[in-house]
Amino acid sequence: MTQYAKFFVILAAVLILLSACKGPVESTQLIVDTDACTGCGECVEVFPYGSIEVIDGDAVIDPSLCHFCYRCVEQCPEGAIY
Amino acid sequence: MIRKTFSLLLLPALVFAVSLDGWMDVQTGGDSLSPEPGRLELGGMLRSENWTLILEEQYSHEDSSGIVPRILNTYSQTDIDLIVHVGPVTINPDLCWTVDLGDKPELVLPVQAGVAYREGFIRPGLSLEANLFEVGHLFVKGLYWNRDLRQDDDSDLAWTETRISAGQSYEVSGFTISMSGLYHKTNSDFIDYESAWGRLDIALSTVPQSLPANMFINGDVTYSFYDGSDFNDHDIADRLTSRVRLVQMIIPSVSVNTTFESVIDFDDGVTRSACTSAESRILYHFMRSREVPSVITLSGKLSTSSIRTERAVLFSRINFYRGLSILLNAEARCTPTMVAGASATRKRIIFGPGLEYQLGTTLRVWGIIEQERTDLEEVEVWWRVRTGLEFYPGSLSL
How far is it, in rounded angstroms, from Cα A31 to Cα B277? Predict the structure, then answer.
């Protein structure tokens, strides 16, 4: 059980850090989970503002051009953008 | 003299054996919403002791009638990569270009400059990496896009982008400390648009070594200082990203992989939680002695930011005769949707069986029939067929 205890201590520390933050849950940038992204390019193919590019096998979002239309979130087959 | 110099340059390549690899990946399918999607990837790699040359060609064709309208329907992309190792230094020049073959894919331009039509881009790049004394790593990478964007009257927007990144990392007592910077500039003289943003990342990651057997933990924390504005001309917030991953083998055939991620934004003195996500995956491997090992994967992921996404997946591959396996895929997802008239969240369930044949590492052929139920303005149900072929004939020594 020791290993699980260590993990949950780390998890609890992160949660405490989170709870210390105030304000609404609001993202200023979308996140790409690079572990889940397969670089298939589906997000690039549906995005109308030209701010997503697949670089070195991962989708990369340009935060200055993203309009939060969420098309890439809806289309990504791996659920890697959120 | 020139011939002599050229011969000296070629000599190292001739001294070492050269091998040739090639591969092919084809995927196609069809359903009532997006008929005839297809993707073909062809690749080749020439490799010697200290250099590698990779050529990849991709052709993609899709109909534009999916739920999320496609901007790029039919295009081809070519990528040429040369990787040269000189002692501890790796030099990687790269050239990639795309040609859009569909019906005038539209790009919505910034600063309300209307739309333009994409005809492709060319992207040269160069990266340099170096390992220092087995504990340090340096990299510099530059990319330049020249996009062929044209307006209705065929005027060229002269759209270019430059992306430069550099960084270094050191491993000290089980910790990896890294610092990297990124600068991205977009420019279009025709519509008088210029935008630049930059980021400085300071990251700390660790993989504890003194853990119980069959356990792996990886944790990393990154603070990103941003300089630049978003499309609303609002400053991009600084961001603290923390991620913890635990992999635990419970018994030799069952492992659990759990990831927790927290993102906090620091925006003009306001600190707020930008995203929290958690994912867990259970893998059960069995019948490992057969030609193709069988596996059942059950995973779930939840993320909450300004949007909420949920995903649960059950995937299984059960080998029943030589390279033949039965596939089963079931997925439930919730995402935001851009479909007008639909509720804010799109719920969908995808379920279907399939068949796969693997011939060692040479060939993999698969087909899957699935049903999708999507909650849009009304619940829509349709069937879809997806097939694929991956071919890797092996390495040939020249």
Answer: 10
d(CA A62, CA B226): 12
Exposure on the CB side of residue B130, measured as CA atoms within 13 A: 11
Residues in A closer than 8 angstroms to B92, CB to CB, are: none
* CB nearest to B236's CB, from A11, A29, A69: A29
Residues of B whose CB is below 8 A from A22: 270-272
Say if residues B129 and B92 touch (Cβ distance below 8 Å).
yes
Interface test with A, best of B40, B111, B273, B334 (most A CBs within 10 A): B273
Give pLDDT tens digits along chain B (398 positions): 445 554 544 455 555 689 999 999 999 988 776 667 889 999 999 999 999 999 999 999 887 667 888 888 889 999 999 999 999 999 999 999 999 988 778 888 887 788 899 899 999 999 999 998 778 999 999 999 999 999 888 888 999 999 999 999 999 888 999 999 999 999 998 888 899 999 999 999 998 888 888 889 999 999 999 999 988 888 999 999 999 999 999 888 999 999 999 999 998 888 888 888 999 999 999 988 888 999 999 999 999 888 889 999 999 999 999 999 999 999 999 999 988 888 888 999 999 999 999 999 999 999 999 999 998 888 889 888 999 999 999 899 88
Q: C-alpha distances in angstroms, B247 versus A2, B214, B215, B281? A: 14, 8, 6, 9
Say what the ipTM of the complex is: 0.87
How crowded is the C-beta side of B327, counted as CA atoms within 13 Å? 20
A73:B336 CB<8 A: yes
Record: contact A46-B307, CB cut-off 8 A: no
Tokens of B153: 């009257």
For residue B337, what are the CA distances in angstroms to B18, B346, B348? 50, 6, 11
Assigned token pair, B132 = 């220092």
Measured distance CA(B93)–CA(B51) in Å, rounded: 12
Distance CA B353, CA B315 (A): 10
| Strand bridging mode B345-359 / B324-336 | antiparallel
Q: Which residues of B108-141 are buried (b: 16+ CB within 10 A; e: fewer)?
A: bbbeeeeebbbbbbebebebebbeeeeebbbbeb
- Chosen from A19, A27, A34, A78 to mutate, greatest number of chain B CBs within 10 A: A27
* Residues of chain B numbered 168-187 and touching chain A (CB < 8 Å): 184, 186
